[in-house]
Amino acid sequence: MLQWLIEPLTYGFMQRGLLAGLLVGTACAVLGAFVVLRGMAFVGDAIAHTVLPGVVIAFLNGVNLFVGALVAGIVTALGIGWFSKDREIQEDTAIGVMFSGFFALGIALLSQVRSYRDLTHILFGNILGISAADLWIMLAVTLTALLAVVLFYKELLVTSFDPGHAVAIGLSPGLVRYGLLVMLALVIVSGIQAVGVVMVAALLVTPAATASLLTRQLPRIMILGALFSLLATLTGLYASYYGGMPSGPTIVLTLTGMFVLAFLFAPGRGLVWR
Amino acid sequence: MASYLATYGRVHTARPLPGEAALCVEGLTFTYPSSSSPALQDVSLCVQPGEKVALVGPNGAGKSTLIKLVAGLLRPPADTIRVYGHPAGSCHHHIGYVPQRNDVDWRFPVTVRQVVMMGRYTHLGWLKWPRPIDREAVDRALEIMQLTELADKQISELSGGQQQRVMLARALAQDADLLLLDEPLNNLDVPTQEMIFHTLEQLAQQQRTVIVSTHDLGILPIHFSRAVFLDRRVVADGPVSEVLTAETLARAYGVRLCTDHDESGGESDASVAD
Predict the structure, then answer these.
(1) Which pLDDT does position A139 carry in this prediction?
(2) What residues contact B96, with CB distance under 8 A and at least 6 apart?
(3) Which residue has the higher pLDDT, A70 or A222?
(4) For residue A206, what pLDDT band results from cuts at 50, 70 and 90?
(5) How many CB atoms lie within 10 A of CB A120?
(6) pLDDT at residue A158 in the model
(7) How far apart are CA B265 and CA B258, in angstroms?
(8) Alpha-carbon distances of B187 from A137, B100, B159, B172, B217, rounded to whole Å
(9) A139 phi and psi, to 5 degrees?
């Protein structure tokens, strides 16, 4: 049994996959707690989809894919805020428009790429194909996200809980929100390599949502969420090593399963106790 | 946005000017961008330090709008609002604002102590952690509002009355000179109302200024010396007994008030009808 567990981890690509899951999972869980609690899940999904044209353009021009994705993610984050600034249109409408438009542009551009196979990794992820350079980027992204949350924790708290008080003391909730969206873009882009554009929102939303069913304390939601992500990454790695399953969907399915379990059986709050 | 960056946490150069009114509103007309008719029209009033003023009027009379303009949540026309001699928005730390219940996300996972500490943020600003002096202020405010035993509970676990006490404790911790409370008394039990009034009375005795908006007219005569009756314009302003006459009430609420001689009894709730 022990042998069965340890053997896959003797391979470099498996170790890198596991480390990637740990780094991306931690960053996603920490920011995901705010995404879930502030009702921003749709924004997260939108940013994930809108990075596609950035990635394809970067690929066509021989630029690092991460840079292309990051620029597109930040443009989306700022664009959503700009479109819905004057409340002429609702924010979720602005998101809906940008999200499908950018994704369509990405798919259209994708058809111009000859080596299509490389880019299927962007759509569905490939946690077993992560290079050492990717890991360094993920480490930098995760440290940046954690540092930002620690440094601006009190501003995140007050703008989430009572934006009116924030304005009254001279702190703009819009500014904090923009900052959070840019951080989201950063983290989502690094998560794409693990589970792909289509599923990265799951990494952001599902672990935090599961954790928020199990505890009412913000730091615990973050820590539990990171643990769930790590567990799901391990499951994905083993399923793909032993069962030949694609790792991305397996990770997301594991996370979804944990959410359903928590929804049904969470102590005192699950469906079966009510 | 730049102005917000400049004011949050860096506001202490603006001291109350001696001899100035706590709040002076002059010829204020305000129209929401989405609306064609003004929410407030030619409103003028001055409040001296140490006054305890009830802002009364029917729903939609502009009470919340006026409070939000003074607190800086809405942008007033230039030179219409002065707080301790300074233009509105330039001295955030002097203004303690308690928003209406619905403006706060009570489900967000923060502890009572964290919420009260938010009152200290204006004295801290970016990248600063609470100092011992801030923790002492929070402890004092918790004690005054009899919340010490609930300090480490999640805000979502408290009753409505307890939550309202937390908001007042936050305003106390802020050490504000001008307190703006928007409908703080809705649906509170009598002991909680009494505790809040007792605290407000003590604040007034320390030469702090309190403005409370309410559409509940039952408690007014006992607890306030001055009432401002607002219905887009200032309908009446003066001692409570002079402001709350049958005519102003009838005008504001559009119903005939029942007197003691009225035997029909059917409209006896007229004074609190919306």
Answers:
(1) 95
(2) A168, B119, B170, B171, B172, B174, B176, B178, B179, B180
(3) A222
(4) very high
(5) 12
(6) 96
(7) 7
(8) 53, 12, 11, 22, 13
(9) -60, -45
Q: How many Å apart are CA B171 and CA B177, to the nearest integer?
A: 10
- Running DSSP on this structure, what letter comes out for residue A8? G
ipTM: 0.89
Averages of pLDDT over runs of 10 residues in chain B (274 residues) are: 56 68 93 90 94 90 94 90 84 86 93 96 92 97 96 95 95 94 86 91 93 81 87 91 80 58 42 40
Question: Can you tell me the distance from the alpha carbon of B242 to that of B27, in angstroms, rounded to the nearest whole number?
Answer: 23
Contact of B105 with A160, CB cutoff 8 Å: yes
Long-range CB pairs of B255-260 (<8 Å, 24+ gap) are none
The answer to whether the beta carbons of residues A213 and A156 sit under 8 Å apart is no
Residues in chain B within 8 Å Cβ distance of A165: 97, 99, 118, 170
Q: How many contacts does A have with B, using Cβ atoms within 8 A? A: 93
Q: How far is CA A191 from the centre of its chain?
A: 5
Dist. CA B246–CA B252, nearest whole Å:
10
The pairing of beta strand B86-87 with beta strand B233-239: unpaired
CB contact under 8 A, A163 and B103: yes
Exposure on the CB side of residue A201, measured as CA atoms within 13 A: 14
One-letter amino acid at A159 equals T
Confidence (pTM): 0.89
Identify all chain A residues contacting B156, using CB atoms and an 8 Å cutoff.
Answer: 216
Q: What is the CA radius of gyration of chain A?
A: 19
Instruction: Give which of B65, B117, B121, B129 to mutate to test A binding, by max A Cβ within 10 Å.
Output: B121
The count of other CB atoms within 10 Å of the CB of residue B118 is 22
Beta strands B226-231 and B52-56, pairing class: parallel
With 50 as the cut, is the pLDDT of residue A246 above it?
A: yes
Beta B209-214 vs B226-231: how paired, if at all? unpaired
Measured between beta carbons, the chain A residues lying within 8 angstroms of B108 are 37, 160-161
Q: Where are the alpha helices (DSSP H) in A111-196?
A: 116-124, 132-151, 153-161, 163-168, 173-195
Cβ atoms of A137 and A190 within 8 Å: the answer is yes
C-beta of residue A106 within 8 angstroms of C-beta of residue A56:
yes
pLDDT of residue B271: 42
Tokens of B36: 């064609």
Cβ of A170 within 8 Å of Cβ of B9? The answer is: yes
Distance from CA of A103 to the nearest CA of B (A): 31
Cross-strand partners of B226: B53, B239
